[in-house]
Write the structure tokens for this entry.
Amino acid sequence: MIWIKPLRRRCETLSTVRNKHLSVQVSESQCVMDRKLPFSPLKQAMSAQLGIEARGETTARAEHMLIIAVCDRLEAIADALPAAPSNESLSELLALLRFGIPAHCRHEEQELTSALAGNADAPRWLHHAAALIKAEHMDNENIMLELAEALEDYRNRVDRHGTTSTDVTADQKGANALGYLIRHFFTQMRRHMAWEEKVIAELRGSSD
Ligand SMILES: [Fe+2]
């Protein structure tokens, strides 16, 4: 009994020192982990790889198939609400909505303009159709920006409160509003691409 008390005290002291040492190590490692980096090596490598892939040949149809896949992914997100999409899948979707699909539209508009300029026999309705496609692109892009923001807000809200916060009505409203926006977007986008392909086919046909 004489030795137990000092031994226990010594063990407690050692354990306190070890815990303090560990907590210092953890806080140092947290500082290192949170230090700002001037660039992201991981994203830079991914961007370089995407750059290589982007320089490969493709077709307008192949690009449309990629956009159809985006619509399918969005539909799956709407079906899964109120569950939020994972951060990994969301970050790629946001980049496609904000940058990828608008870039596709710009390229398509240039192609339409040069095809019409090089085809003196193109009927008047094709000129109107091309103008309408450009107007729809603008409309779609506004919806894409709104949708990207809504998806991000929803993900952040779920990260903060989970899918069932104390304000159940607000949760339900948020999920319903996002679901409506997603469904509106992919319905409009699928319809837009279907008639756009018809216009492009007519334009090519009229130039033969
Ligand atoms: Fe397109």
User: Anything to note?
Assistant: The first helix runs from residue 4 to 34. The radius of gyration is 27 Å. The chain has six helices and no strands. The chain has a mean pLDDT of 84.
